[in-house]
Design a protein that fits this description.
about 300 residues, mainly alpha, MetI-like fold, 13 helices
């Protein structure tokens, strides 16, 4: 009996071994290598790579530029997550119906999700350009502005405390991420039993009451998962900020992942870059812990 049980255990381990190997090779080993590298002043332009302990972490935290970039990272993550969630939920509510063009509208809504980042960043760069922007052309035709605006370069134009390049970057990141949330919310909405909604309306509930007391509780588990995962993804976001502005102008749109790339592959400071990567990991870990606590409280 014991021998049979050991054989079954070996079979189970054999089945999960490939997944564990992939996890170790692609996740655990890079993280451990990054932690190890962060304790050295590793620079490809020098022959020696001395051990410096936690000096790389201290240097980054004492650098005003890094603190500004750290704040940018959190700011972009929070605002992009909040606005894309609202937009995704509103879109899902509008598309949660049957109609002649609903299928077409849903397909169009998926475009930001399935379009490669390089492609839509080129399009947005053209729309935000100071010379060829169709947005500038429309605004000038309507008499709202007298000269073209540099949406990605005019750091002096401030709106609600944020510069124009920051708002422009937020628009692109919100547009790029809302489609995933729309899809998830739409699936959650379609799983809400129709008899609950009908019963609420029979009891005299208006549209707001139905949304508050029926719709929101029905989609809350999905909402928690989507918001938490999106927060983690936004904290480690790279491609849009790098491809659109490379962190400029004057680090207004710079985030940790872009700064990490600049440290490693422009300045060759791999030790500092590794330390910056660990800070990113810590931020994402905080979001993951919040997600776990929220899901546990929801299960209770």
């Amino acid at each position: 009996m014991l021998k049979q049980r050991n054989i079954e255990l070996l079979k189970d381990y054999a089945l999960i071994a490939p997944a564990l190997l992939i996890l170790v090779a692609l996740v655990i080993y890079p993280i451990l290598s990054g932690i190890y590298l962060s304790f050295f002043d590793y620079n490809l332009l020098r022959e020696t790579q001395p051990y410096v302990g936690i000096d790389n972490y201290i240097v980054l935290l004492s650098d005003p530029r890094f603190l500004k970039i750290l704040w940018n990272t959190v700011l972009f993550a929070v605002l992009a997550n909040a606005f894309s969630t609202l937009l995704g939920l509103a879109s899902a509510l509008l598309l949660n119906s049957s109609g002649r063009f609903v299928g077409l509208l849903r397909a169009l809504g998926y475009l930001p999700w399935i379009t490669p980042a390089v492609v839509f960043v080129v399009i947005w760069s053209w729309m935000f350009s100071g010379s060829f922007s169709p947005i500038n052309a429309v605004l000038m035709q309507w008499g709202i502005i007298k000269s073209p605006i540099s949406f990605l370069g005019d750091e002096k134009m401030i709106f609600l405390g944020l510069s124009l390049p920051v708002w422009s970057m937020l628009v692109v990141r919100i547009w790029a991420s809302y489609a995933f949330k729309m899809t998830m919310f739409l699936a959650a909405l379609q799983n809400i039993p129709q008899d609950r909604i009908d019963a609420a309306r029979v009891d005299g509930a208006n549209s707001w009451h139905v949304f508050r007391y029926v719709t929101m509780p029905g989609i809350m588990p999905v909402l928690l998962v989507v918001v938490s995962l999106s927060m983690i993804w936004n904290l480690s976001h790279f491609e849009v900020n790098y491809l659109l502005t490379a962190g400029g102008p004057k680090d207004l749109t710079n985030v940790i992942t872009v700064y990490l790339y600049q440290l490693a592959f422009v300045q060759w400071k791999f030790g500092h870059a590794a330390a910056a990567g660990i800070y990113t990991l810590l931020l994402a870990s905080v979001a993951a812990i919040v997600y776990l606590r929220l899901t546990r409280s929801e299960e209770r």
